[in-house]
From TrEMBL:
Alphabetic keyword roster: Signal
Protein's UniProt name: Lipid/polyisoprenoid-binding YceI-like domain-containing protein
Signal peptide per UniProt: 1-25
Keyword Ligase: no
Statement: the UniProt record of this protein carries the keyword Nucleotidyltransferase: no
Source organism (scientific name): Pedobacter quisquiliarum
Length: 223
């Protein structure tokens, strides 16, 4: 297969090597946005990063890379995460050269194809967005987790291109005197946002795994 897809999150994510179905973020229709109560912290866009991983069918020829966050805020109320949102810079999509090992292929060519109209059409949709709609304590009975010791279950509206869906995933959030750090890793189905290569069901699209694994490290500093 010639081409491969990221995908968000990322927002944004983000991504996948084809995780087990119970690692998929729960996906539903758009939900009401959570009010940002308490202290609002600006996201550290240098320290915040989304990583992604995608493969062909059966986990073959994995590709991975990163994508940046251009702006955003999170809110902390009574030492708990209460809301937030961030903007993903789709033009920053990066393919790690270490993931492209074939002699006739280049990471830069793949990045160019992913940002083209065949996939994310960055010229038309320069950003993606994630907005928190619900924050609740994580319990083992609710979901499996690809990260260790999650303490929150976060839901949010993820916009990719012109489509918005709500996703729910476990996250580990640490709040200190200096700020907030959150980490998450989950799998989404790219086709749910209508992201297909050529046409849905075509041989070119079929050979690409629909699963995208997305990882997020988010940092926000207190003033």
């Amino acid at each position: 297969m010639k081409k491969l897809l990221f995908a968000l999150p990322a927002l944004l994510l983000l991504a996948s090597c084809g995780g087990a179905s119970n690692d998929n973020a729960k996906t539903t229709s758009v939900q009401a946005v959570a009010e940002q109560k308490g202290e609002v912290l600006a996201i550290d866009t240098i320290g915040t990063m989304i990583d992604w991983k995608a493969t062909h069918k059966g986990g073959l020829a994995p590709r991975w890379g990163k994508i940046g966050v251009s702006s955003g805020t999170v809110s902390v109320n009574n030492d708990s995460l209460s809301g937030g949102e961030f903007i993903i810079n789709m033009g920053s999509l990066f393919v790690d050269p270490a993931s492209v090992t074939e002699k006739d292929k280049k990471a830069s060519d793949l990045a160019g194809h992913l940002t083209s109209a065949d996939f994310f059409d960055v010229a038309k949709y320069s950003t993606a967005k994630f907005v928190i709609t619900k924050v609740e304590p994580f319990t083992n009975a609710q979901s499996s987790s690809l990260i260790a010791d999650p303490n929150y279950l976060i839901s949010g509206n993820l916009t990719l291109k012109d489509s918005t869906l709500n996703i729910t995933f476990p996250s580990k959030v640490e709040i200190t005197a200096s700020g907030l750090t959150a980490s998450a890793r989950f799998v989404i189905d790219r086709s749910a946002w209508g992201i297909n290569y050529k046409t849905e069901g075509s041989p070119e699209n079929w050979i690409i795994s629909k699963d995208i694994e997305i990882g997020l490290i988010l940092k926000a500093k207190r003033n």
